[in-house]
Amino acid sequence: MDENKGVVRAMFAVVLLILAGVMNIVYGLAAIDGAAYFNHPTHFLFGTLQTWGWIALVVGVLELAAAGSLFAGQAFGRYVGIAVGACAAVSALLDIQAAPLWSLAVFALSIWIIHGIATYHESERTRSKTGSAAGSTTLLIGPRPPM
After folding, report:
1. 104 contacts 90 by C-beta, under 8 angstroms
2. Among 18, 33, 75, 93, whose CB has the most other CB atoms within 10 angstroms?
3. Contact, 56 vs 29, CB < 8 A?
4. What pLDDT band is residue 39 in, cutting at 50, 70 and 90?
5. What is the DSSP letter of 127?
6. Phi and psi dihedrals of 3, rounded to 5?
7. Under DSSP, is residue 92 helix (H, G, I), strand (E, B) or coil?
8. In terms of pLDDT, which residue wins out, 146 or 98?
């Protein structure tokens, strides 16, 4: 039962990674274009609205690439997903003056993604003698990061 719970948690984290990637791309494109949503005067810690728009756009594209890699079962997606989730969390906190509730929501989503990807590990019982995963229903996220 616990191994199924881990797979479901990892799949949910991948879906959240896709959702965060799409949200960051939309947010980034709106910031680059200078949409009416960003009409109020805001002072950023560094950079301008367009700078943060490009940062959000790049982070969103990397999140989608990591999610695609996770669905393919590659270790690249696991490490990049954790790294990009951390970058998204930090950039959300740096952007908190512009949209406080949105930034806190993106921060919480990023922490949930990191937790879901980092805590998943393939159980030894689901491996066959050759070392490959048994069954086609398991999500292969790659090796557990060193601690």
Report:
1. no
2. 18
3. no
4. low
5. B
6. -70, -35
7. helix
8. 98
